């Protein structure tokens, strides 16, 4: 499926949901889609997204536009959608600072990784209890990245295994360590072990 979405596209979905991921759709995502409950436009070729005209009346609960080529600043009014539970804006070309409105959102999942975001975290985001759990989905950025000065990150609990495949809870393994580097490794990176030894003191 290719082409652009008309401005009134959000009025055409009688069931309140649109799932059009993994296509070749282009252009700008229209604001009429905020009238829907669920929108998945991931993995297309969109280059822009309109902000919300009147966020207080939007019923949207889930928005996924990851894996596109959307540039510009993050739409600030999305952070004021009262019903939003899941927001994925990852792997685009968003730049600039995270809007302060994103710090006030109480949602289950927030994904901002893989963009070109810079600047400090909004103070309200650092004070938000949800930030302790979704920060790993925010911090990995292209370019200069975000400013971590004065930011304390909570290590989420996860299950890991030793060489004998014995399970451990992460807090048991890392309780006496200080995380000083988060490094994303790609298969085939011959410098991985060298960088790990230089930058992380386990």
Spatial separation of the terminal alpha carbons: 49 Å
Sheet with the most strands: spatial strand order: 2-4-6-8-10
User: What is the ordering of alpha helices and beta strands?
Assistant: EEEEEEEEEEEEHHEEEHH
Structural class: alpha/beta
Helix content: 10-25%
Strand element count: 15
As a percent range, the share of strand residues is 15-25%
Shape: globular
Gyration radius, rounded: 19 Å
Major β-sheet profile = 5 strands, parallel
Secondary-structure topology with pairs:
Blueprint: E1 2-4, E2 17-19, E3 24-29, E4 38-40, E5 45-49, E6 62-64, E7 71-72, E8 86-88, E9 93-96, E10 109-111, E11 116-117, E12 119-120, H1 123-127, H2 131-134, E13 146-147, E14 159-161, E15 167-169, H3 170-174, H4 192-199
Parallel strand pairs: 1-3, 2-4, 3-5, 4-6, 6-8, 7-9, 8-10, 9-11, 12-13
Antiparallel strand pairs: 14-15
Can you offer a commentary on this structure?
This protein is of the alpha/beta class and 202 residues long. Helices cover 11% and strands 23% of the residues. It has 4 helices and 15 strands. The protein has a 5-stranded parallel β-sheet with strand order 2-4-6-8-10, with no helix packed on it. A 3-stranded parallel β-sheet has the order 1-3-5, with no helix packed on it. The chain is globular and about 50 Å long. The C terminus is likely disordered.
């Amino acid at each position: 499926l290719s082409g652009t979405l008309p401005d009134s596209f959000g009025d055409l979905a009688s069931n309140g949901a649109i799932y059009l991921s993994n296509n070749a759709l282009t252009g700008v995502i229209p604001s009429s889609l905020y009238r829907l409950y669920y929108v998945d436009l991931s993995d297309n070729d969109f280059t822009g997204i309109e902000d919300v005209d009147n966020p207080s009346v939007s019923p949207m609960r889930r928005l996924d536009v990851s894996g596109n080529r959307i540039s510009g600043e993050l739409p600030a009014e999305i952070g004021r959608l009262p019903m939003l539970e899941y927001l994925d804006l990852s792997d685009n070309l968003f730049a600039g600072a995270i809007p302060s409105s994103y710090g006030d959102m109480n949602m289950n999942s927030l994904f901002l990784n893989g963009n070109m975001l810079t600047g400090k975290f909004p103070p309200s985001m650092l004070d938000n209890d949800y930030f302790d759990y979704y920060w790993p989905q925010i911090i990995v950025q292209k370019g200069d990245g975000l400013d971590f000065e004065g930011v304390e990150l909570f290590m989420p609990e996860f299950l890991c295994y030793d060489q004998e495949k014995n399970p451990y809870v992460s807090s048991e393994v890392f309780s006496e360590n200080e995380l000083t580097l988060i490094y994303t490794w790609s298969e085939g990176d011959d410098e991985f072990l060298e960088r790990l030894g230089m930058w992380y003191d386990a």
